[in-house]
Write a structure and sequence with these properties.
With 214 residues, the chain is mainly β. 7% of the residues lie in helices and 45% in strands. It has a seven-stranded antiparallel β-sheet, covered by helices on one side. A five-stranded antiparallel β-sheet has the order 2-3-4-5-6, covered by helices on one side. Strands 13-14-17-16-15 form a five-stranded antiparallel β-sheet, with no helix packed on it. The chain is globular, with a radius of gyration of 16 Å. The relative contact order is 0.16.
Amino acid sequence: MAYINTINIAPQKDSQALADAIISALSTALGWTVNGMYIWKPDSGLGLRFDLGGRNNVKVYMAACCSNCYVSISYQYDVDWASGVTYCVDYINTGNTVVVGYRRADSMIYLPVCIAANELGGYKAFQLYSDALFCLASDYSVVKQLKLPQNYIAGCATSIMRLPDVFSGTMFKDLYLEFSCPYNSTDKVYYIGGKYYRHIGTGGQYGGLAVPVG
């Protein structure tokens, strides 16, 4: 089973302290390696990682990155830092896919980045932003971008399919493409074929990805 996990982060003095606290908590939970502001996936062998940091004592940002390419700053997910506010780190670890997000404790769960294994044993990192899906790997010199379907259509059924790794000619093990869903939200869970799945993405009106959570 891969239920979502939530870690509470106590109020921090500024955005960089908050980023540091998130890195520490997440690396401990996942058993990943910390290197500066990076959290490395140690067994992928591909230099895939999540990058966190604080900017101007105002925002904390997160991006997926790898050895050779990086998602542009304009597509990073960030959250406003505020004094006296408790934050949460949310993550899912299926064993094949790791999904991460963070938020104010009083806000909705929001999952914009993931690292996933395909059937060939390779790993890719993904950053989602609006209707864009950015794909990264250590052998890419540039980020590859795909478009997500606009799937919020009143009266439609929810439909998902296993995500193909179109750049490797295989499929991801347990990462899915959300093709259609009538529920417009950045945090949604649905039940299909005897399993629960959670949405990964940043815009409820657009398709996203999904992972099984039980």
